[in-house]
Design a protein that fits this description.
Keywords: Cytoplasm, Schiff base. The chain has helices spanning 19-32, 44-51, 72-85, 96-99, 105-120, 136-149, 167-176, 192-200; strands at 8-12, 36-39, 58-63, 89-93, 124-128, 153-155, 182-186, 205-208. It has 213 residues and is of the alpha/beta class.
Length: 213
């Protein structure tokens, strides 16, 4: 499985995550050469110190997690603090609630504001969709919205909702996203063969949570 390590992001966002679990994930990232570590905003400053400024692994955090329905101003404040604390990538949860309402026009405005802030600091920006809640047309529309806003990556799920990994759904998501935009797939429960298929079709990052006790 060594050949998959450069694609794997260890993701520690469940509410009961412990400091020991995070250190274990950090050890995996550094010893195995994983792509990165994704932690809650509270932990960014600490793990930036642990990784240092020049470590090749990416330290990511989430904004508006897990449902994305915070006010834009709240997301902006979260994003600015994450940048100050040393996040190397930002993953912003799309406001799915707004998508299902007549205020969906604000989604484009919000993403444009947040992308501009991130890119001004030369920081990669990911939009997270909760694709399990969306039909195919909605998924495609939100992928286009994120692409037009300037997202560097689009991620298929938050990982916060209880869903089973589906290779077919993940492959379809990759097809929907333009080749010019990176794709992250939440791959908890995927087999090694399935991970290899995702990488083969151009998935850039595999978000995998460590097994919890």
């Amino acid at each position: 499985m060594n050949h998959l390590f450069p694609y794997i992001e260890r993701t520690l966002l469940h509410p009961g995550v412990t400091i020991n679990q995070q250190y274990e994930a950090l050890d995996e990232v550094t010893q195995l050469g994983l792509a990165g570590l994704t932690v809650a905003p509270f932990w960014v400053k600490k793990f930036r110190r642990e990784l240092g400024d020049n470590h090749p692994a990416v330290l990511s955090t989430v904004i508006g997690y897990p449902f994305g329905y915070q006010r834009t101003e709240a997301k902006q404040a979260e994003l600015e603090w994450a940048l100050r604390d040393g996040a190397g990538e930002l993953e912003v949860v799309l406001n799915t609630s707004a998508l299902f309402s007549p205020t969906s026009v604000w989604l484009k405005i919000e993403l444009a504001k947040l992308v501009a802030l991130a890119h001004a600091q030369e920081t990669f920006f990911t939009v997270i969709l909760e694709s399990s809640l969306l039909d195919q047309d909605q998924t495609k529309a939100m992928i286009k919205l994120a692409t037009d806003a300037g997202a560097d990556f689009i991620k298929d799920k938050t990982g916060a909702l209880p869903t089973h990994f589906s290779l077919d759904a993940a492959l379809a998501f990759r097809r929907y996203v333009a080749k010019s935009v990176g794709v992250k797939i939440v791959a908890d429960g995927a087999t090694e063969a399935e991970l290899e298929q995702l990488v083969a079709v151009g998935v850039d990052r595999l978000s995998i949570s460590p097994l919890t006790p």
